[in-house]
Amino acid sequence: MTDTLVEVRNLTKYFFEQDSFLDQLMGDDPVAIKAVDGLDFDIERGETLGLVGESGCGKSTTGETLLRLQEPTDGAVTFDGENIYEMSRAELKTFRRNAGIVFQDPFSSLDPRMTIGETVKQPLDVHDWPYGEDHERPKSELRKERVKDLLNRVGLSGDQFDRYPHEFSGGQRQRVGIARALALDPEFVVLDEPTSALDVSVQAQILNLLNELQDEFGLTYLLISHDLSVIRHICDRVAVMYLGEIVEIAPSSDVFSDPQHPYTEALLESVPRVNTDERDRDVETLTGDVPSPRNPPSGCRFRTRCPSIIPPTDVDLSQELYRAVVTVRDRIRDRDIDVEGARELADGDNPKAVVDRLLERVLDGDITRQPQHEQRVRDALRAAIEDDWEGAEERLSVYQSVCEQVTPVLQDGRTHRAACHLREQPDHIEADIDELGRNVPQEADD
Ligand code: SF4
Q1: Other C-beta atoms within 10 Å of 26: how many?
Q2: The CATH number of domain 4-235, selected from 2.60.40.1190, 3.40.50.880, 3.20.20.10, 3.40.50.300
Q3: Which of the listed residues 246, 265, 267, 302 should we mutate to test ligand 1's pocket, taking the one with most ligand atoms within 8 A of CB?
Q4: Most CB atoms within 10 A, among 61, 116, 382, 424?
């Protein structure tokens, strides 16, 4: 039987641009930046859940929002049965004792004017620890004793109480950050990229320390990292995040041995291999940038970079050429086609010559062996140079993928879940796909 400590439901955090009084006066509508968009997951008591993804995917915002360091736009986070967004001031204070955070940068997260002893003692002062008034010795003495004990436990020395951060290395400063996070004996700690600012040789020491402290203090961790090797080191389960959404969640061993989402596969492929046999492997690594969270792609948000995007059944192009045509179509939609540049290169206004130049510049691949598709792309570019952008879009509308029309979701009731149309999807999603009359190839399901 599981024992859930943290329950996250539909957690959503948008930031808004163009939201000032002046913008309102000017009649501008606020623009939502969808940093975190409808997350659902649980963290069991005593486990370490890893949250992994490229930078900018919303991992840190998730960590801060589920500690209520930021207010959510929507959703609920339940800690030990209580919704933290509905807590009174007194309840929130108790929650803050039970939930700590270790930040990424041990250089900027410590106040250079405070000794490390004062830094670790600060939460004890704020929360008036030890609680209550009936103690054998003065609180100041008990606090100092606790700080020295914590410094010893994280591999420093109680004798270093009066030393300043600049006297310590990066790894030692991160140990101070960990001691501060543990000062009030929390049950739950968010570790936000705790080793990414450290040398590789020091990273393993800090991860081992976190492992030992978890056993010693009975801690539950949310470990945020962009680095899968860090995740592999200490996590029981992994949630993979892309552009504000979780795309795969499963026990760690399953994610590493049998990834189900193309994004997870690509992340795993980008991890350097120690084994020399594997170094020359033919890999599909991630290309392109993460799209803007202001205007995320429709359907599957990973589709603009997915090496396995599903073409319509009647489109007989290779995956590479299909993606190249879709890129042209998207650039036409975004009016991102340099017609004037092509005219200059064509040295005149001959439409065929301009289309030839455009084709060379915007289509990444040789489509000449596919005359039917080549003609469609040429017709679309011809419409674009005639300033008929809607007509250009229309000519390439046949290339629409199911991946951009129907949003895949994480399946319920499984330990290994992936939001991808190549995996079995719930009935209502399959019904939406049927309605579109699209066939989706099914890969082996777990
Ligand atoms: S739904 Fe389509 S685009 Fe998204 S990951 Fe799966 S195959 Fe790729």
Answers
A1: 9
A2: 3.40.50.300
A3: 302
A4: 116
